[in-house]
Amino acid sequence: MAAHTLGTGQDGTLVCLACDQSRDAGRYLCRTCWWTLPAAARASLSRRDRNALARLRQLVDQLRADTPLNRIEITP
Ligand SMILES: [Zn+2]
Question: 29 alpha carbon to ligand 1 midpoint, in Å?
């Protein structure tokens, strides 16, 4: 998995990691999916530090395991 290509469509547009709708730059998910995440997961994913990529991997792993968005847990 290459982080720099995650969530990028074939034409270079940014797409939500969960539903393929377009998303804002700097966010991993579209607004609908983002606000479906538990508040704790949103807070963790919003932090930008050296563990940010590890938290992104947690999100991606759970999405690939078909974890419902409202059940996603990210290490704080
Ligand atoms: Zn989405």
Answer: 5
